[in-house]
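Saturday, quiet lab. Running sequence design on the structure tokens for the scaffold JK sent over.
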């Protein structure tokens, strides 16, 4: 447990810089933060939370200028960011080409969710770290979001490097998520009332109720399905196939992790699929053990391989 002072913030930043995970206070809920550029750090977030599938994570930045480096900006984005950042509002924007973010943080999508949090400690950590932080709620998957350091310690205490004690979260609700890849859409209601956003925009938001493709858990990934067809649990490549290996795999075009490390494999998953999909007709994938992060990897692979 680190205090929310200069020494605590500096210790948190040191841990984040080597790819460790630190729970940080935000005004919404405690976030489980990891370097959004570091695929292994992002993979560890899914591992620590025990998430059964890879959904894209919100990337936290210290200011509008940094957000503009990762998302394709628009007049609407500027208007909303000026009015409500720092604050409990997340904007989903087209991902800027050539960004150095881990492809796991966007779950391989070409959109990015960005937020500038209002908690002074979160902002101080972001400024000192001077990099983007992926930070979903700091609780085991399926459990209640944490609004106190003790909640985080109870759920994840033995799985993360540190918790920065910033007291109770002021808002206590996740951020409101607005999609700006098309007409402004409410993707998730949250800490900022949608009416305030509609008043500012002078128009109603499109509503994506639960069950829509965009918000239903487990369906988001279907936004990225490879062009190539897929064959899972392959031992070797058949004629016409390109092999994606795991562990020692003969004849693999690419390998998710030659040493069979699931964290490394998760970090490589979307990048390798994108790369092979540029030329492969059929991607054959070696079998991945179905435990720990392997469950989320297999979930994603099964959906990529599903008939369409
Ligand atoms: P959280 O678990 O609080 O980090 O919220 C993550 C949610 O934000 C996801 O389930 C999506 O609804 C949304 N989201 C995050 N990143 C993206 C993205 N790149 N494109 C679309 N929606 C996103
Ligand atoms: Mg959550």
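Result came back. Writing it out in full:
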């Amino acid at each position: 447990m680190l205090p929310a002072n200069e020494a605590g913030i500096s210790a948190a930043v040191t841990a984040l810089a080597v790819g460790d995970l630190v729970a940080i206070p935000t005004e919404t809920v405690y976030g489980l933060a990891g370097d959004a550029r570091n695929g292994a750090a992002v993979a560890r977030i899914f591992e620590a939370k025990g998430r059964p599938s890879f959904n894209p994570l919100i990337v936290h930045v210290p200011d509008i200028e940094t957000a503009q480096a990762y998302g394709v900006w628009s007049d609407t984005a500027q208007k909303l960011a000026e009015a409500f950042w720092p604050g409990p509002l997340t904007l989903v924007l087209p991902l800027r080409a050539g960004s150095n973010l881990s492809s796991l943080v966007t779950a391989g999508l070409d959109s990015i969710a960005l937020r500038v949090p209002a908690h002074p400690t979160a902002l101080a950590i972001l400024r000192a770290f001077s990099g983007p932080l992926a930070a979903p709620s700091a609780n085991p998957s399926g459990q209640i979001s944490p609004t106190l350091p003790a909640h985080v310690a109870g759920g994840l205490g033995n799985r993360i490097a540190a918790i920065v004690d910033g007291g109770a979260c002021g808002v206590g609700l996740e951020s409101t998520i607005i999609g700006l890849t098309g007409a402004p859409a409410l993707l998730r209601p949250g800490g900022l009332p949608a009416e305030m956003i509609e008043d500012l925009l002078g128009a109603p938001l499109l509503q994506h109720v639960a069950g829509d493709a965009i918000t239903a858990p487990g369906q988001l990934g279907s936004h990225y399905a490879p062009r190539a067809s897929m064959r899972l649990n392959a031992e070797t490549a058949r004629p016409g196939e390109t092999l994606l290996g795991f562990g020692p795999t003969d004849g693999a075009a690419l390998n998710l992790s030659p040493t069979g490390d699931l964290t490394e494999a998760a970090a490589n998953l979307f990048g390798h699929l994108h790369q092979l999909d540029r030329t492969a007709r059929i991607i054959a994938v070696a079998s991945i053990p179905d435990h720990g992060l392997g469950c989320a990897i297999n979930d994603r692979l099964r959906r990529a391989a599903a008939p369409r």
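Notes for JK: The pocket of adenosine monophosphate (ligand 1) is lined by residues 55-58, 92, 106, 109, 111-113, 136-137, 174, 177, 187-188, 215 (CB under 6 Å). The CA atoms of residues 228 and 277 lie 6 Å apart. Ask whether to fix the surface positions before the next round.
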